[in-house]
Amino acid sequence: MKKIFLLGLLLSTAPFLLAQHIEGVINVKEVERIERILAADDMYGRKTFTPDIEKAADFIAGEFKTIGLQTWHNSGSFRQEFTLSSTELNKYGIRSMPGITQYALANVVAVLPGKSRQEEYVIFSGHYDHIGIGSPVNGDSIYNGANDDAAGTTAVIMLAKYFKELNSNERTIVFVAFTGEEVGGFGSQYFSRQLNADKVVAMFNIEMIGTESKWGKNAAYITGYDKTDMGDILGRDLKGSGFTFYPDPYPGQQLFYRSDNATLAKLGVPAHTISTSKMDNEPNYHQVTDHIETLDLDNMTMIIKAIALSSKSIVAGTATPTRVKAEK
Ligand SMILES: [Zn+2]
User: Fold this and answer.
1) pLDDT tens-digit map of 24-55
2) Would you say domain 20-316 falls under CATH 3.40.50.280?
3) How many angstroms separate the first and last alpha carbons of the chain?
4) I want to staple 107 with a disulfide (CB 3.0 to 4.6 A). Which of 3, 31, 80, 154 is the partner?
5) How many whole angstroms from 223 Cα to the centroid of ligand 1?
6) What is the value of pTM for the model shown?
7) Domain boundaries in the chain?
8) CA–CA separation, 306 vs 308, rounded Å?
9) CB-based contact 95:183 (threshold 8 Å)
């Protein structure tokens, strides 16, 4: 009886301690600092295959280094570099340049080894590329992609800070900023070939969390909710927190298949995208007006906290989501 009582006591005080902890690490000031750098005009829309995206990659790698994370398989670099041939590019409808046969890309990947279950990976990801520069609209030609997906990338960096500080993850956490999402998902495809998908117990992909959801603040949705029981696990961990994660309300848009989670999901990984984007009413989506000024940074900070809280049992190894039916 006593033992159970003590356990109950522990369980009831833990969320409070965690909540206090979260307050300090995941704060709006830091969210704004990172978001502002990624969405700045001098990143020129972070387009894949441009020097601009390299600048963004260096910034993210610098953040991972400052946090004190490890590199993938101790490669010594947070940049996971690879190349694509002109033939592969053409396959995706991207024109190659005459005489150039290989095109360089890089994901930015960092690792926080698990305390006990090092071979079980939990992934937090977002894509840091966007669509670059286009024809001017009202004198603005830079597609800043503040929401799409500087917001998700900011979340990944904030979660890295949080879990490093918490220093209690039983499973290994991998933080990934993907390249090439907007041009065909090249980054997640390459990443998925660098590890055994069977070892990935869950993937939290984060896309466009900078605006309020259709349910208002403190709410987000999970794409492909019914494909695994991961949404239920997240919901359990969020109980009493004031946050709610709903099933994707836009099933007609096939969002589950439209971001980097899909690549891992095809291999059987419980890989979902968490978003707040109102896909039927998001006027700045893929527009030059996707600026930081259009984001609700307070709510975005709260959503990042919610993602941190929701992943508690998965990160601790006390819950394991069912797997997606792998495609042949
Ligand atoms: Zn996106």
Assistant:
1) 899 999 999 999 999 999 999 999 999 999 99
2) no
3) 51
4) 80
5) 13
6) 0.93
7) 20-316
8) 5
9) no
